[in-house]
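seq/struct pair 1
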Amino acid sequence: MDTQIHGAGHEPLSIEAGALTATMKIKRKVVIDRYREQVEAMYRD
């Protein structure tokens, strides 16, 4: 089974990178912190 989810041009989201749990759920705080600029850009006017 592949343990990576590829994001927007950055390192893949993976268990090893700390962005996914063992059951492949996204650790939201880790991902939001890592991609803060992109998340904020989505909500700008």
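seq/struct pair 2
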Amino acid sequence: MFKHAAQRGRSKREAEAYSLRYVEGSSDARTKLEAFFNILEMKQQPEEQYTATQSGNGHPPEAARRLSVIEPDMQDELSLEPPPDAGPGISHLKLTLIAAAILFLVVATVVLFQDRPQTASAPSTEPEAIQTPAGTRLVQVLKPQRRDLTRTLSLPANIAPWYRATLYAKVSGYLKWIGFDKGDEVKKGQVLAVIDAPEIQDQYEQAESDYAIKKLTYERLLSVWKENPDVIAKQDVDVAAAAAEGAKQQMERRRTFLEYTKITAPFAGTITARFADPGTMIQSAISSSTQANPLFTLMDLDTVRVYVSVPQESAMLARAGVPTLLTIKEMPGVEIKGQITRTTESLDPATRTLLVEIDLPNKDHRLQPGTFANVTLALEQHPNVLTIPPAAIEPPSNGKPKAVFVVENGKGRRVPIKTGIDDGGWVEVTEGLTGTEDVIVVGKNNLADGQTVTASPYTLPSGTPAKQKY
């Protein structure tokens, strides 16, 4: 075995060094373990005992027992390769620490398994069986209730301003002055910016002078014709009058273009975007707005429009006047009531949805355009109708219509019914029940018509009203 090869013909120190190289450099786990225990044993042996052991060519009983525990077949002779070159040897302190760590792990594992509590058997979740007479079913019943029922539909919505305009310049020139910025409130007709266009000013002044001379010429000819009609022809007077009128129109046109150098607000609102600064060359947007730079975006936020796309299956119920409730995730607890103001009365062929608009006052500007919101539409409202829980209804099957089970004289009887709208918590019953029956809600599965039942009041909580979402 390894111990024979390590100690044969070597002193105690040489045998320790020989074994230590195997601990650090050998790739065989069994050999490493043998070498490690051999080092521990030699550390505990006095020099005289080691020498006596070598001379007797025997093994201490304790070491033999350790090796026999590790691997029974390790009693065979091992053909060991020369010890690997493990580099500089490790210190005795490091070796002692390694041994202490292994011993600690062994002791901790034993203590852990000894202190591990016994696993208690899990309590049974099966309900305790209730003894009933043979063939009798335990059921829970509830009388139909009258209540106001509303069918609702919850849809995503987008908030938009009442008015929105992007302002461009109609004449080209340098931006001379701009007086407002993002977030500023402006009034209708208020001057927002001025464009410096000297050529427009020159054209206006020239047109003004031309009109003045042609007007004067007409007035003189008219005066002469009135004093002496034979001196000048009436046609000359009419031509002069037409020329003066044409010059006047040209002057007015040039004045209009001069007014276009002032950018004014088309309606009262809030500046939500500004795109230019003084000194910027502004191109005219008459021919194309894609090549021109905008100046402002103006929005009227005192009233907002809420756009909702209603699916085809509910489009016929989405009419003007339908109550609505708007909520926003970022405004918890805030519910804004309104109603449908208008619809497009036509479905979008691409999405098969009906565009619906809801106008809401927004004087405090808390509803911001572009906000994603949720709108609940009260599509149908039926007041004071007979209702039952959805769990009480047996769906149609095998040719049998929709029905419920009622208790009569201690027996369950199947009663066909017709239903109307539901809100997820209650279902409207239009035919089949009068409101005095005891309707079975719990225990009706696989219940035979005419089977004996034992009834108790329905105790489970009612459902939460549903909101269909898209």
